[in-house]
Structures are given as C-alpha cells and as structure tokens.
Amino acid sequence: MTTGSCANMQRNTASPVKSMAITGKTWKLTEINGQPIALKNPKANPYFMLNTADMRYSGHGGCNGVGGTFEIKPESMRIKFNQGMSTMIACDDLATERAFTQALLAADNYSVNGDTLMLNKARMAPLAKFVAQP
Predict the structure, then answer these.
(1) What is the pLDDT of residue 3?
(2) For residue 103, with 0-12 CB atoms within 10 Å meaning exposed, 13-18 middle and 19 or more buried, which class applies?
C-alpha cells in the first residue's frame, strides 16, 4: 500500500513539470476532432505558441495570424484561450483554420504525452492534437 502511494506522489509531482513544458514552444496542429488534418497547402500548417512573459498566445491558422491572451493552471492542467485578434485573409484552407481557432477557444484543459499536446474540453475526446516543433 505504501509503495502505491509513493508512486502516486511521484506521478503527481511530475505533472506540473510536464505541463509547464507547453509554454515557449511552437505547437503544430496534426489532428482536429480525431481526424488528421488534410491541408491544401502543407506549408501553411496551423500552429501556436504560449508566451508566459505577457500571458499571450500567437500563431497562424493556415491563412491568418491569430493571437490573444490565455490563462493556465499547470497544477490542474487547465487552460483558457481568450478571444483575440485575427487577420481576415481568404484562402483555400479556411475550414481547417476555423476548426483550429474554435478548438483553441473551446479548450478548457490539456494533456501532454511526450512531444504531443492535446487540447480538450471537459472529459471529451481531444478537440485538437499538436506536435512540438524543434
């Protein structure tokens, strides 16, 4: 019994360290609502970054730049993206861009597995999956 609780403590202690690792990285979109993204222009892959210095997120939806403020509670792996700004350029991958920005705004928690970040809403399947870029 004691060994089990030590294992639980170690796992709980590691979570905040893992979760803080999501800031300061570029996260490239790989899946939306459980489906791999299919881009008409692979060079325009949606991505975002979290900057804790000013608590702002910035990125690109594939066509337009996106950005705004965010709130994060690493100890409980909670996150909230606030509605921000976006440029308004029309393009071929507008549906992917809309799904990307909707996933950001709908997410209320996240999980990390290695270099993969999943944005989630409640206990539902991940809204979006991202991979860390070097």
Answers:
(1) 44
(2) buried
Q: Look up the pTM and report it.
A: 0.81
Residue carrying structure tokens 């909707």: 102
Report whether 59 contacts 28 (CB < 8 A).
Answer: no
Question: Which structure tokens are listed for 80?
Answer: 């909230």
- The half-sphere exposure of 16 on its side-chain side, counting CA atoms within 13 A, is 8
Cα separation, 19 vs 133, whole angstroms: 16
How far is C-alpha 69 from the geometric centre of its chain's CA atoms? Answer: 13
* Residue position matching structure tokens 């999980």: 111
All structural domains of the chain, each given as residue ranges with its CATH number in brackets, are 2-133 (2.40.128.270)
The one-letter amino acid at 80: K
